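Predict structure. Chain length: 339.
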Amino acid sequence: MALRDLFSWRRAAPDKAATRDTRSTSAVCVSSEELIRLRLQARELRLDRRQAARSVISGAHSSRFRGRGMDYLESRGYQPGDDIRNMDWRVTARSGHAHVKVYQEERERPVVVMIDLGPGMFFATQGAFKSVIAARAAALIGWAAVRNGDRIGALLFNGGHHELRPLGGQRGVLKLIRELVSATDPANGARTHTDSNHLNDALVRLRRVARPGSLVFILSDFYAIDTDTRRHLQQLRRHNDVVACQIIDALEMTPPPAGRYAISDGIHTGTLDTRTAARRRAWEHYFSEHHHAVRELMMKCAVPLLRLTTSDDVAERLRNMTNTLPVGAGQPAGHRGAA
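Prediction complete.
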């Protein structure tokens, strides 16, 4: 039995009053004030390096670039044009040949969040909408990034693509917050229907926003993955660190008690029927297969997978999950050349 067999649909009459009442709660939409307050909770959120940064802007992360900096790397033979202030006199005296010290510079790293705001993200049975959880997570990542001296950028998809080039400091995260508030408003996104390939399209665009050496967070429920998604992820992973955050609702883990339930996708209303054991098994099988497919995809692409539920304390959950990511989990197999 297919999952669609559990549903019957009909055209819905708009209920403007209900929409206004629903949108007044923080479970359905976010405000700038809420996301700005997350700044304090982001203090303990660690965005650890998974690879050396390649940015040309000085910052707080070790890079593949070599030059003057804080960390001694090695000594090598003197070459014409080397700065004599970097002479390694001990090695020179010991070897009888002039040597200079080479340092590993610290470089700034861009952090980019990609947020899938397709219609399915405007949903929850517990806690807050998936779109709200994604907005909170993105704001926390943004505050943590700028606190570390990094730039923050974003790609938001809610029927159209909104690209935010990475910016440093408070200006960067406040610009992200303004876009999050607008893009996660159900009036702007929940009724926008998209084709099944919107995630792949966003991943292609993401490669333009995330310059080589970036740390990329992808926030989605990943229902739009298909056979091409792996290729797009692997291309993105070739020169960036990528972390996937899957946002799920309790209803996707366990079917509701047996019964008939009124449901809506924002345009149509319908009835969900789970009264028979066969229908409940079909429900469990569908979502189990989906979660398995997401795990397999991320494992094959060497992308760490974090899971957020709609009832989570996002700050605490992100803090715990990012602090336990294995060192090197973001490294791809094989050599990474500089861009």
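Summary: The first helix runs from residue 16 to 23.
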